[in-house]
């Protein structure tokens, strides 16, 4: 579950957790709409592609303290994205009801 600690709202009831390189590379490709969390070893600029994901995503970049440092709204299919801020955790929101519930500076909890 992803909860916005700053507002008390639940962002996602269920999400896919990706910690390994293979699962992070595969991401949401060829899957139904879902929410996904990628956890990296350290802070870094994060590059993504949205190839073979047939719906737009909202991308959240979080630092090591789970604070949202960047948001990319409407990450469209078959496009590329590189974060301008460094992050340790990336959240891909594919479910429409999860989008728009987070702002830069909010702190999230991921259970």
Describe the overall structure.
This protein has 1 helix and 10 strands. With 111 residues, the protein is mainly beta. It has a single domain (2-110), classed as Protein of unknown function DUF192 (Jelly Rolls, Sandwich), CATH 2.60.120. The strands form 3 sheets. Strands 3-4-9-6-7 form a 5-stranded mixed β-sheet. Strands 2-1-10 form a 3-stranded antiparallel β-sheet, with no helix packed on it. A two-stranded antiparallel sheet has the order 5-8. Strand 1 (2-4) and strand 2 (10-12) form a beta hairpin. The longest helix has 6 residues, at 21-26. The model has no long low-confidence stretch (mean pLDDT 92).
The rounded distance between the terminal residues' Cα atoms is 5 Å
CATH topology assignment: Jelly Rolls
Radius of gyration: 13 Å
Helicity level: under 10%
Structural class: mainly beta
- Count of DSSP E strands? 10
Q: What's the total helix number?
A: 1
Write the layout of secondary structure elements.
Elements: E1 2-4, E2 10-12, E3 16-18, H1 21-26, E4 35-44, E5 47-49, E6 57-62, E7 68-75, E8 80-82, E9 87-93, E10 108-110
Parallel strand pairs: 3-4
Antiparallel strand pairs: 1-2, 1-10, 4-9, 5-8, 6-7, 6-9
Could you give a short description of this structure?
By secondary structure, the chain is mainly beta. It has 1 helix and 10 strands; from the N terminus they run E-E-E-H-E-E-E-E-E-E-E.
């Amino acid at each position: 579950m992803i909860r916005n600690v700053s507002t008390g709202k639940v962002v996602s009831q269920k999400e896919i957790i990706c910690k390994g390189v293979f699962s992070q590379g595969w991401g949401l490709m060829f899957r139904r709409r879902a929410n996904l969390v990628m956890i990296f070893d350290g802070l870094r600029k994060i590059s993504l592609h949205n190839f073979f994901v047939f719906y737009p995503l909202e991308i959240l970049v979080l630092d090591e303290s789970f604070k949202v440092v960047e948001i990319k709204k409407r990450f469209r299919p078959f496009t590329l994205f590189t974060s301008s801020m460094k992050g340790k955790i990336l959240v891909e929101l594919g479910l429409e009801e999860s989008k728009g519930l987070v702002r830069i500076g909010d702190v999230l909890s991921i259970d």
